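Quick one: structure tokens for this chain, please?
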Amino acid sequence: MSPRQPSAAVRRRRRRLRTGAMLTALAAVVVGGSVVALGQLDRSEILVRERCSATVGPDTFELTPEQTGNAALISGVAVNRGLPARAASIAIATAIQESRLENIDYGDDAGPDSRGLFQQRPSQGWGTEEQVMTPLYATSAFYDALVQVPGYETLPITEAAQTVQRSAYPEAYADHEPEGRAFASALTGNSPASMNCTLRAPTGAGDALAVSTAADEIFGPLGGAVDGTRLTLDVSGTLGWATAQWAVANASMLHITSVAYSGLAWDRAEGGWSQTASEPGVLTVEVAGVTP
């Protein structure tokens, strides 16, 4: 007698089981291969959410690298003009409310021709569209108006900012005062080593001369010396810390890998500040070298 053949239902069930086992094995191979592949990649390229933070006292506030670079420009202009940190606090809080600290090229219902960091309107005499879309010009224009406000240093931020901006929502400026104060304190150099950026590895080579030129544009001539990938600046005190933390804030855009000043160093790969040997009054900035 020939062996009894399994029924059609049994055969179908066996095929499903074999197919399931094969898929499970394939998934294991794919997952295992993925794990190996991920392990071979730089963790910073996969896991890092790029961000910058200012910590003053118990409070820490975060912005994107783009936003932080603009906050650094706003603070640097205040330092260059000899304005108090309060002016930078007001300006940063205003720009957060108006544009999220982004150089946007569109307006809103209250000002369809508004542009730039402060949503300044060419039709209201702030300058041409090209000018208000230039962050350095826009910031200078804001401060030109702010310093005309009597006693702006002691006014509530809603009153000081509103006198300049004439917004339909003046109370909203106060919502951003805490982070405005924290970033202004760090980026004007009044809170040393309080600026940090968590960044991926640089995607290209940096240019130390470009860093020097950008710093001079914000702070005025600093007399930097460039040697390969290193920029050295003779700066001291509050200006030194303002410049050092400006460099950290712009590390993403300028491919900066480390900043050292006053016995402390910020390292892009490690994040945060740590002690280091450094010459007093000398700021050194390292940029990424030529990539293979």
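Residues 1-45 have pLDDT under 50 and may be disordered.
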